[in-house]
Amino acid sequence: MMKCISRRDFMKGMVVGGAALGSAGILSACGSSSSSETTETTTEETSSSSESTAEVELEPTLASAVADMDYYASSEYIYDLVLGEFYDAYSAAKTDATTVSERYAMMAASEAKLLESGVMLPLYSSGGNYAISRMVTRTTPYANAGNDSDKYYGGLVTEDFLKTEDVTYLRELWEELRGTGTYKAEAEAYLTEQGYTFKNELNIVYSSDPQTYDDLASSKSVDHEVLVNTYDGLLEYDCEGVQQPALATDYEVSDDGLTWTFYIREGVKWVDSQGREIAEVVADDWVAGLQHCVDTQSGLGDLLDGVVEGLGEYISGEITDFTQVGVEAADDYTLVYHLIEPCTYFNTMTGYTMLAPLCRTYYTSMGGKFGTEYDASASDYLYGKDKDSIVYCGPYIITNATATTTVIFSKNETYWNLDAVNMDTITWRYDDGSDASKTYTDTLNGDNDSVTLNSSRLELAKADGIYDTYAYISSTTTTSYMAFYNVNRQSYANTNDGTLESPKSDEEKARTYEAMALQSFRLALSYATDRGAYFAQTKGEDLKYASIRNTYTPGDFVFLDEDATIDINGTATTFAAGTYYGEILQAQLDADGSDIVAWDGTSTDLFDGWYNPDAAMEQLEIAIEELAAMGITVDEDNPIYIDYPFYSGSETYSNRAEAYKQSVEGALGGMVIVNKIEATLDQWYYAGYYTGSGEETNYEMYDLSGWGPDYVDPSTYLDTMLPDGSGYMTSSLGLW
């Protein structure tokens, strides 16, 4: 069993006598009271009992350690407390590795430290559900990173549902033909022979409206999934996973790997929502796009910090002249990026939003400014407010967007690659999932073209005879959804409207605050979570392990191109060429004596390598001792309460929440109680996903958020856990 880090290691010299509730309801050291009257009373009582009661020296509380800090400083302090070991290992991987393979190996070892910290529990990947669909398998872009997989224009859609046997055949055909450029044509020919006919419209269900139409100002998938269909990037993955020219017809890399030159396609037009020509797409649009991306502080620009020359200095404010950043338009059709050091995966970043173009002339005409003058709150700033305040250079124009109702994409008749657009219209219909039978029925009648069969829909499909003929198991993806633990909770109600107020007393909040800061307590929660029972509520008993993931970075995301030797706990360890990332990660876990099984010999998916009630109780016992050293008693009569918001409008999510509660409380002997906090869909999103900072997050455990890779390198995941607010997902931990 892994040894937990003692809080004393982080708080030496801070030992004080006693612990009491401070004015904010957080445990603080005795001796700092809210009034002189309280101090006098405490002194008298202590004096009168000093002869019979010896003062007990206790460990300091976290609240006492951060009491005089502002929120930013407390985030920094707590990050060092809970993720310091990961950060040291990860920093070494980025700075000390001499080869790409060594970098991968060291990053895998650092992710082991991340998992061991217990700040989050891996849950699942997308996919792994029973589904029925008219969308032809693998005819839209196939990409392990970026946004290309959300583009639908080139896909094939049949009038009737695809039969299970045909889906199986097409998957095998794709594997056989991948990389030849012939799969889509062969798939169309095969389905035609089988009697299928095709249609030129696609219907999709969505559950959350875009929060902005300025793609460069958001890091949220709910925005990107819509807007990526309205523009093209420099390069684009095809349906076989091969990058193809898009708005760049070609590119070159200098011999030293530091200069990347892209040649921009001539004659491509920006148009408005009415299809009227606004301007020509030129190289400067990527210069404007990157500057605006950084100006918005969306977090996207941070992905290129340390990659593009001068960008980090521009982000930090050291320089304000964007011409000093390593991106330039050499002429209208030549775009050049200057890198700090060779970046073998830079081309894979071109499929993500931070390298999207922005029409400078249109942006400024809508009140947009750059640099220190950027102000999205200005009265004359109109850009990105709705579908009519952006311009389009991609396959579609958004012609209708009615909140919680419909988003309609219509073919852009000026699109440079018009012949490749198979869907004249794409219609997104809002569905909050509260009525599972309606979603299923709408799919049968053609209002939707695919639907996952959760536990309740699965029974409907079986009763209707749909399951046997048409159901298949959808493929999993590289997106990893996690359960995040709030280690610095500041909000006990949603900050946007005051809803989802915590039922806990101030004392209960204080006790939980201390417990959540303990590695042992967080690991106890993770080991106590029966993810099979949890997913059975949404996927059905037979698929409860079909999408489970045991890591943040998928174990087969990258592998070593050559032998790599790294240090694992003082031992030089060599991993052979071809070794997968997950195997190296598991080697570090094993060396540390961790109870986590992340790699089963072939994968980090499709099994539960965390659920371990015995290890959960062992970790809880360690946590109980650590809390007792701070004067906090934990037993069945004095449990720790954790708040868990969930979408109560869905029966399946409600059942999942109950399964989580029973699992945790049962494995931990009733000494941890899960407060299920019922939420509407919007309230659930605003508890964490829509929050602007970690300070606003309203939960102890949150299972809505995840991360999909932006480029093909493990840093695309691990960078999200960097400190000082540069790690996008640290806000899910209540930090920054």
Topology:
Blueprint (H helix, E strand, L loop, with lengths): L15 E2 L1 E3 L5 E3 L6 H14 L7 E2 L3 H5 L4 H26 L3 H18 L2 E6 L4 E4 L23 E2 L5 H14 L5 H11 L4 E2 L1 E6 L14 H7 L7 E3 L5 E3 L2 E6 L5 E6 L4 E3 L5 E4 L3 H12 L15 H6 L10 E5 L2 E5 L21 H6 L30 E7 L3 E6 L13 E6 L5 H9 L5 E3 L2 H10 L1 H5 L1 E2 L6 E6 L20 H11 L2 H9 L3 H9 L24 E5 L2 E5 L5 H11 L21 H16 L11 E8 L3 H17 L4 E8 L1 H7 L13 E2 L3 E2 L7 H4 L18
Parallel strand pairs: 9-20, 26-27
Antiparallel strand pairs: 1-4, 2-3, 5-23, 6-21, 6-22, 7-8, 10-11, 12-13, 13-17, 14-15, 16-17, 18-19, 19-20, 23-28, 23-29, 24-25
Please describe what this structure looks like.
The chain is globular and about 80 Å long. Strands 5, 23, 28 and 29 form a four-stranded antiparallel β-sheet that branches. A four-stranded mixed β-sheet has the order 9-20-19-18, with no helix packed on it. The chain starts with 15 loop residues before the first strand and ends in an 18-residue tail after the last helix. Mean pLDDT is 91; it is low at 1-54. Helix 3 (71-96) packs antiparallel against helix 4 and helix 16 (531-539) packs antiparallel against helix 19 (651-667). It has 736 residues and is an alpha+beta fold.
